[in-house]
Structures are given as structure tokens and as C-alpha cells.
Design goal:
It is globular and about 65 Å long. By secondary structure, it is of the alpha/beta class. It contains 5 helices and 7 strands; from the N terminus they run E-E-E-E-E-H-E-H-E-H-H-H. The strands form 3 sheets. It has a 3-stranded parallel sheet. A two-stranded antiparallel sheet has the order 2-3. It has a two-stranded antiparallel sheet with strand order 4-5. It comes from Hordeum vulgare subsp. vulgare. This is Transposase. InterPro entries: RNaseH_sf (IPR036397). One of its GO terms (molecular function) is nucleic acid binding.
């Protein structure tokens, strides 16, 4: 990403982006509406049984509850609202940043970049500011400018790649989809993700 202060100079430069955290939400589909399959002669064609494209299962967030009769974990979708995003930022993102942020960079302002989705937390959100004031780091929310090119690396590369890797597993239900996404996330090649950041 170009440094806006250097654009008018003879030697424009790029921002380091070492202080930027990208967050985004993603719906993972059980299958795609259109898939291309290459089969060998004599090999049976894959069977897809979806009555309507509106009935393709999706999952975004999950909530675990005890199923009373068998003790199994029940997986339910959660509607992502501004309150859910705020709780996620406060309870998951800020502690993760606090754990991983290097001690010698403590004075640096950390920017959490979001796109302009309606459920995302506003930069002047009171609950977020109160949570940040309780720690020693300077963390601020940054909204992507409206009508700008896509600068969220999660949408550009990471989520698409995870969706493709999960598609190869051909999940049959929501549990298999969640398990596949989690396993692909854990096994994802970090140098490949680093190459994605260079494209920004």
C-alpha cells in the first residue's frame, strides 16, 4: 500500500504494514453452485444432490451447546451483528494481539482494518475504546475507504484459498465443513500467505 505522504515526492514509497491487522467475515459453502470435474474414461461422474441452489448449506460462526439427550455438541449458526463483532474483537482479537505483539514495538499504533460491512464495529465505538484503554497498546480501528479497490488480503487470497482447499474434501454436512476449514487453517502454508500480503 502506497504511503500517501510520499506520492507527490519524486521517490514514492510503500507503507510497511507491520502494524496492520486485517479482519473479515466469510461464509463457507458446502459446495459451489457450479463445479468442474475431470473424470477418466469409464470413471463414474460425481453425484451432486442439491434440489435448489438456495438449499446449499453455509456456515459462518458457530455456537456450541450441550445436546441434552446424547451429550453431543450442537452446532448452530449465529447472526453476525455489530454486538457479535465487538465481542469477538474484545475477547479474541485484542488478547491475540496482546500475546503476539513484540515488546520492542509497544509504542507503535496498531491498526485493525475492516471493510465497510454493516456489522463491523465503528472506529469511535465506546465498548471497543474502553477495552483498549485497559491494556498498554495503542489499538485503533480503520475502515476501508468506500468504493476503493479491495485491500483486505483475507478476501483476496486467504478465504478463497481455504474455500478451495475445503471443497476438495467434499464435506457432507456442516460439522465436516467446520472441521475441514479448521484443519486447512491449521495446515495452511505461512510462506504462501506472506506472498499474498506482498500483492497489496
Amino acid at each position: 500500500m502506497m504511503d500517501e505522504h510520499s506520492i507527490s515526492t519524486p521517490y514514492p514509497s510503500f507503507k510497511s504494514m507491520n502494524n496492520m491487522v486485517h479482519i473479515d467475515e466469510k461464509w463457507y459453502d458446502m459446495t459451489r453452485v457450479k463445479n468442474t470435474y475431470y473424470v477418466l474414461p469409464g470413471e463414474p461422474e460425481p453425484e451432486r444432490t442439491v434440489s435448489n441452489t438456495n438449499s446449499i448449506g453455509k456456515t459462518e460462526a458457530q455456537r456450541n451447546n450441550q445436546n441434552r439427550d446424547r451429550g453431543m455438541i450442537e452446532v448452530k449458526s449465529v447472526k453476525v451483528t455489530r454486538h457479535v463483532c465487538r465481542e469477538y474483537l474484545i475477547n479474541k482479537v485484542i488478547p491475540a494481539i496482546q500475546d503476539k505483539w513484540p515488546d520492542d514495538d509497544e509504542g507503535t499504533t496498531i491498526l485493525i482494518q475492516q471493510d465497510n460491512a454493516k456489522p463491523h464495529v465503528l472506529p469511535n465505538d465506546e465498548g471497543f475504546r474502553e477495552a483498549v484503554e485497559q491494556i498498554d497498546l495503542d489499538i485503533r480501528l480503520l475502515q476501508q475507504p468506500p468504493n476503493s479497490p479491495e485491500f483486505n488480503v483475507l478476501d483476496l487470497c486467504f478465504h478463497r484459498s481455504l474455500q478451495s482447499l475445503t471443497d476438495c474434501r467434499a464435506p457432507m454436512n456442516i460439522r465436516e465443513l467446520i472441521q475441514g476449514v479448521e484443519e486447512e487453517f491449521e495446515n495452511y502454508d505461512a510462506p504462501k500467505l506472506f506472498k499474498s500480503f506482498i500483492t497489496l
